[in-house]
Amino acid sequence: MTNRVRGLHCSLDGTSYPFGEVHRLSEAGRPLLVDYHLEGMRAQLDRDEIAARPGGFWKWRELLPVSDFDRVPRLGEIDTPLIELAANPGVVVKDEGRLPTGSFKARGLALAVAMARELGLEKLAMPSNGNAGAALAAYATRAGLEALVYCPADTPRINIDETQLAGAEVVEVDGYIDDCGKLLAERAQREGWFDVSTLKEPYRLEGKKTMGLELASQMDWRLPEAIFYPTGGGTGLIGMWKAFAEMRQLGWIEGPLPKMFAVQAAGCAPIVRAFDAGERFAERWENAHTIAAGIRVPKALGDFLILDAVRESGGSAIAVSEDAINASWRELCRTEGLLMCPEGAATHAAWRQAVADGQLDEGAHSVLFNCATGLKYPLQGLA
Ligand SMILES: *Cc1c(COP(=O)(O)O)cnc(C)c1O
Question: What is the DSSP letter of 64?
Answer without folding.
Answer: S
